[in-house]
Amino acid sequence: MLFGFFIKTLAVFTAAALLIYGITSSASLGYLAKLVAIDLGLSIITLVVYPHFRGIKKGDRIIVSDEKTLLLLFGFTNGIAITDGRINDFVQFELIDGTTGIGKVSRYEGFLTSAEIKVMEKNVKIEITQ
Question: Are 43 and 73 in contact (CB under 8 A)?
């Protein structure tokens, strides 16, 4: 989920806008409003572009889905990426119950959703008891 990332970039760009406003002599409130608008625009552009540069990294929390599972929304993850990947790449994952498998990256992390991987092959966890 990129909500926290958006808040951080918004804070950084707002701080930069306020510094520029403070340094600029004879700046009006209209100038500050333009700086804040640029700040918000840069934050939104960063939010859209960042996942495509980053992709999925080892250790990211992900949504693993197949035909049998209902797609979970709003950050309810059920797995962790074991390898790095990009859209249409195959990555290894581990589910919450310890099951591992291979899946295809179908979408990146969104504003309120985690990255999604479609299952291609899943290994069943075997427990040996005596």
Answer: no
Mean of pLDDT over the chain: 86
List b or e across 20-57, with b for residues whose CB sees 16 or more CB atoms inside 10 angstroms.
ebeeeeeeeeeebeebeeebeebbeebbeeebeeebbe
Do 90 and 120 touch, CB atoms closer than 8 A? Answer: yes
pLDDT tens profile 73-127: 555 778 899 999 999 999 999 888 888 889 999 989 888 888 889 988 887 665 6
Domains along the chain with CATH numbers: 3-54 (no CATH), 61-122 (2.30.30)
pLDDT of residue 74: 53
Q: 76-89: b or e for each residue (b if 16 or more CB lie within 10 Å)?
A: ebbbbbbebbeeee
